[in-house]
């Protein structure tokens, strides 16, 4: 029997007051990071914010309570989506 997962769409996230604020805050932080050079150029800040939030939401739903993999993979998702360099192996969480 197939199982279906309800995934929030961009419109659903942007239509909720808390979602609008979260997207706006992430967009603002991405813009600031680009301005000071800590986040490299890439997709428009709002698109990046939506991708970031969607990736984190999906990962946390699927890996809830599966420590330490939840934290390790969340770090990889954030680094990858934002286009940041990977942390040196000596500073990564184990």
Describe the structure.
- There is one protein chain.
- This protein is mainly α and 94 residues long.
- Helix 3 packs antiparallel against helix 4.
Termini separation comes to 37 Å
The radius of gyration computed from the alpha-carbon positions, rounded to a whole number of angstroms, is 15 Å
Secondary structure class reads: mainly alpha
Q: What's the order of the H and E elements?
A: HHHH
| Unreliably modeled segments | none
Count of alpha/pi helices: 4
* Average pLDDT metric: 85
Beta-strand fraction estimate: under 5%
- Indicate how many domains the architecture comprises: 1
Count of DSSP strands: 0
- Gross geometry: flat
Percent helix, as a range, is: 55-70%
Sheet with the most strands? none
Summarize the structure in short.
The chain has 94 residues and is mainly α. It is built from four helices and no strands.
Short descriptors:
94 residues; mainly alpha; 4 helices; 0% strand
